[in-house]
Every structure is written in C-alpha cells, then in structure tokens.
Write a sequence for this structure.
C-alpha cells in the first residue's frame, strides 16, 4: 500500500475513533435481547451509514447483547477478551425483500429492512457450536439508496467503522489482531477485505462467502478482498456468473460445482433480470449457497474437501487428482487452521474445486471414472452407472473413433468402498450405429488419489446394444 494511502486511512481512523466515543453512551437495558429493529434504527438520514454491533456467545447464543467498545468493560458483557472473535458482516443482498418506503420528508423508513437477515443467527450459532468464541454481528444499514452502486460506495465507510471497533478492542482491551476472524457475505467480504487493508493484513483470518462480483472483479486489490488482507484468506464461490466474483481472492478459493450454478437451485432464463431488479429468487439461491455450505461445514457432519486445479473443466476431466500443491493435504471448508493446509508459505489465489450434493450437508465423494475402449470406427455412447443400495450416479460418455481413454469426475453420495455395483449400457444405438463396444477396462477411484490405493477395475467387457452389463462389487470399508 502507498504510504499516502496509509496516512489517509490512519487519520480517518483517528477521526472516527473520537467521534465514536462521543456518539456512544446509549446503553442496553439488562434482560433485553438486542434486535436489529431497535427504534433507534427505525429511521435514518440519507447519506449516512449506520453501524451497530450485536454480541452472541455460548452464554447467550439466542439473545444478542448490544455491543460496542465501551460495553466490553461492563460486568454484564459476555465478551471475553481472551477468546477469539468472529465478526459476521452481511452484504447487500441479504434481505428477502426490499420494502423501503419513501416518505414525504424524503427519508427512508426501514420496515422490512429492520429485520435481521434470518441466516445471521444460524451462522452465529453454527460458529458457536464449532468454537467457543465471541461472535460479533455487524449490522450496517445502507445510506441513501439501495441501488447497488450506491451501496458499494458506502462499504468502505462501514469497514472504517468496524476498524475503529477492532482498533479499540486491540488497544484498550488487549485483543490480539490474529484472534479476529472476519466472515463477510457477498459485499460483506469486501468490507472485511478493507478492514484487513486498514490493519495491513495482520488480522488473523478473513472468510468471504461468495464475495460480491459486479464492480469488484476489475477492481484494484486495494478495493476488494485479496490475500494480503489477512494472515489467511479463504473464500467460497457459488454464483460467480451473477452476484459473486469469478476470480480467486484468497489463499484458497473453493469453487463449488464450478462456482456458478448450484445443484438444486432452479434455473431461469430470466435470471439476469434479477440483477437489475433485485427481487431475489433464482439467483439468490446460488449466491446464498456459499453461506449454507459453510454453516453445514461448521456443523461438522462431513468433510468438504477441494482439489486444486487450473479450471473446472480440467477438474471434471480428471486432470487434477490430488493435493500435491499443498504437500498432500487437501484444503477443507470450515474453521480448521488455514483450511487444513500444513505448509508455509501458503500458495496464493489457488483455485480448488469440489462437487456438492443439492442439500445439507452437501458433501459428495469425488469418484474418478476411467473408461478405456478398443478403437472404434464409428461414434458411440456408453452410460456408466455407479450405485450403492439407495443411490445411483450416472454419466454418459460420448465415444469417438480418435480417442480410447475417457475420464470424468463424478459426485457420488457414498464413498468408493460403499459402491456395490457398476453398470454399463450401450446407449448410442439409434444415434451412432456403433454395434458392440469393447471396454478394455472401466475403473473407479476416489479423489484425492493416494499412491498406495489401486483403483477398482473391471476388464474386458463387450457391451451390445440394448443389453446392459452390470457387475457387483463385494467391498468392505476400511477404517482408515
Ligand atoms: C422487532 O422484532 C421483534 C421480533 O423480531 C418483534 O416482535 C417486534 O415487534 C419488532 N419491533 C418493531 C418495532 O418492529
Ligand atoms: C474467558 O476465556 C478464558 C479462555 O477460554 C477462560 O479461561 C475464562 O474463564 C473466561 N472468562 C470468563 C469470565 O468466562
Ligand atoms: C446442524 O446439525 C443439526 C443436527 O446435528 C441440524 O439440526 C442442523 O440443521 C444442522 N445445520 C446445518 C446448517 O446444517
Ligand atoms: C449408500 O450410500 C449412503 C450414503 O449416501 C450410505 O449412507 C449407505 O450406507 C450406503 N449403503 C451401502 C449399502 O453401502
């Protein structure tokens, strides 16, 4: 960062610090849970960004305490300065509906907007379930208008106010910068990134949940979340073709199902309209998937591990099969230190890919399917189905005369050792006129590949049109 920028940030921080101290003083009455729709926040002036904080801990997971730098020292505060602090920052598109009303005095009246986004409590509770921490929820209210570009203009002001709080907690209450973990959703990810910029990357961790894309993709790293913003930055991408950002912004960037369209989210050819009129329907499902997957990972029912690869296409083609880039440890979504990566320095802006199922807990096993056929003189199509008792996963290979080896990574709900049958079908009869297909081998293995594990293979199979072939495996899942 240029020293001029630093100087400007620092003076802003000072100005804010003094005004914050003057402005605070309103205290929360004991025995009351703080809500985002406090009367004080019912109305607000144009051009102002209002920020308030709520605190949730394991002592008060359901009943938020109003929080600011002064309330820390109060005996009634549940904030524990020796515990790590998680800061949740929501974004622009968290509200279900826009119900703003322009009144005659040209003020905006908050009606629905005063409602806390319903996921905030869920995320706070999931965090508390995973770690005994202080969870601070940042509630910021947009100034002026809800037009996306105007909100974007306000995000740095929000970041500066949060910086003041963090600065006070550090200076006056001895909280270590490394103990802060900022979790930003959508635009909130860039808010977190700017807080990180203010602290010159010394904040412990920033997690971006589908960091906002429009207007940020081409932005300077100073203006958006990037790996220099914290000691460790991770991001989950689920809607990079609409609300999310398509470029990597952290040390590790998880691209779920390619990072664009999520399984189980309805597609609409009118989807792009929702960008202009944010009536969140179809698109928001993809965008908010990052949050739901993150919460599910915190729940800890199963591991959501990613495989580093240059592109989603390469990943699906089976070109990336292990985590060599990370010295063999695949990064996982969640609170694990550095996403589980045990090397230093951590490579930056590494895209990692994973497939998910369509509902919680979202975990899928990555099964690499390799099909080798004898040379064909005409095109053909072979459908491969892997099943265990209840679940089947299928893939159709389009076979061409010029190639004999085909690879594909599939999401399967069960582990490789639970797959109990494989079925091959010559499906291209009408279209392709290819008669028999001779399969030299069909193999399945689970990613990440380990050198000592041989794939499960069946060799030398002739599959005729209309005569499906299947093979049952008798396998036992090991303990490792
Ligand atoms: C604030 O929210 C609570 C529940 O979330 C509701 O019971 C109460 O009526 C709301 N107050 C106002 C003034 O909207
Ligand atoms: C604060 O946290 C520390 C470390 O977890 C713990 O030992 C201590 O008892 C906590 N203090 C209070 C008042 O809960
Ligand atoms: C977390 O797990 C509990 C049960 O263990 C479940 O009720 C809850 O829905 C889960 N939450 C998420 C977000 O997966
Ligand atoms: C089939 O897969 C599911 C996982 O989705 C697993 O719970 C079940 O035990 C598997 N069945 C067998 C027979 O392995």
């Amino acid at each position: 960062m240029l020293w001029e920028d630093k100087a400007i940030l620092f003076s802003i921080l000072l100005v804010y610090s003094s005004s914050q101290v003057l402005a605070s003083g309103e205290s929360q009455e004991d025995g009351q849970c703080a809500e985002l729709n406090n009367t004080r926040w019912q109305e607000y002036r144009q051009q102002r960004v209002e920020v308030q904080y709520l605190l949730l801990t394991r002592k008060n997971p359901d009943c938020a305490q109003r929080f600011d730098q002064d309330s820390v020292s109060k005996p009634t505060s549940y904030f524990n300065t020796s515990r790590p602090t998680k800061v949740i920052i929501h974004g622009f598109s968290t509200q279900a509906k826009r119900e703003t009303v322009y009144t005659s005095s040209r003020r905006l009246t908050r009606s629905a907007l005063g409602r806390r986004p319903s996921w905030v409590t869920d995320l706070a509770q999931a965090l508390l379930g995973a770690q005994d921490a202080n969870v601070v929820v940042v509630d910021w209210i947009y100034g002026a208008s809800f037009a996306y570009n105007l909100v974007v203009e306000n995000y740095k002001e929000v970041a500066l106010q949060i910086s003041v709080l963090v600065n006070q907690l550090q200076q006056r209450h001895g909280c270590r910068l490394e103990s802060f973990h900022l979790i930003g959703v959508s635009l909130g990810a860039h808010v977190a990134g700017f807080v990180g910029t203010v602290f010159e990357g010394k904040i412990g961790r920033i997690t971006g949940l589908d960091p906002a894309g429009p207007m940020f993709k081409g932005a300077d790293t100073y203006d958006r979340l990037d790996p220099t913003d914290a000691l460790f930055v991770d991001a989950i991408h689920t809607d990079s073709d609409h609300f999310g950002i398509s470029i990597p912004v952290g040390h590790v960037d998880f691209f779920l199902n390619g990072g664009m369209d999520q399984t189980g989210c309805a597609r609409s050819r009118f989807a792009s309209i929702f960008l202009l009129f944010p009536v969140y329907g179809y698109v928001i499902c993809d965008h908010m998937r990052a949050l739901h997957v993150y919460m599910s990972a915190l729940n800890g029912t199963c591991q959501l591990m990613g495989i580093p690869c240059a592109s989603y296409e390469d990943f699906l083609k089976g070109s990336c099969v292990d985590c060599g880039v990370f010295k063999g440890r695949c990064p996982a979504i969640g609170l694990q230190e550095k996403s589980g990566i045990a090397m230093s320095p951590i490579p930056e802006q590494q895209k990692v890919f994973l497939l998910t199922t369509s509902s919680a807990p979202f975990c899928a096993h990555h099964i690499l399917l390799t099909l080798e056929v004898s040379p064909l003189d005409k095109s053909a199509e072979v459908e491969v189905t892997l099943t265990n008792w209840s679940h089947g996963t299928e893939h159709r290979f389009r076979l061409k005369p010029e190639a004999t080896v085909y690879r594909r990574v599939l999401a399967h709900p069960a582990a490789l050792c639970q797959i109990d049958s494989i079925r091959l079908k010559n499906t291209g009869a009408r279209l392709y006129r290819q008669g028999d297909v001779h399969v030299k081998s069909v193999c399945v293995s689970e990613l990440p590949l380990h050198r000592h594990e041989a794939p499960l293979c069946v060799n030398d199979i002739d599959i005729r049109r209309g005569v499906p072939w299947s093979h049952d495996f008798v396998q036992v899942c090991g303990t490792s």
Q: What stands out?
A: The longest strand covers residues 437-446. The chain has two domains: 3-354, 365-472. Confidence is low (pLDDT under 50) at residues 14-29, 37-47, 93-115, 271-281.
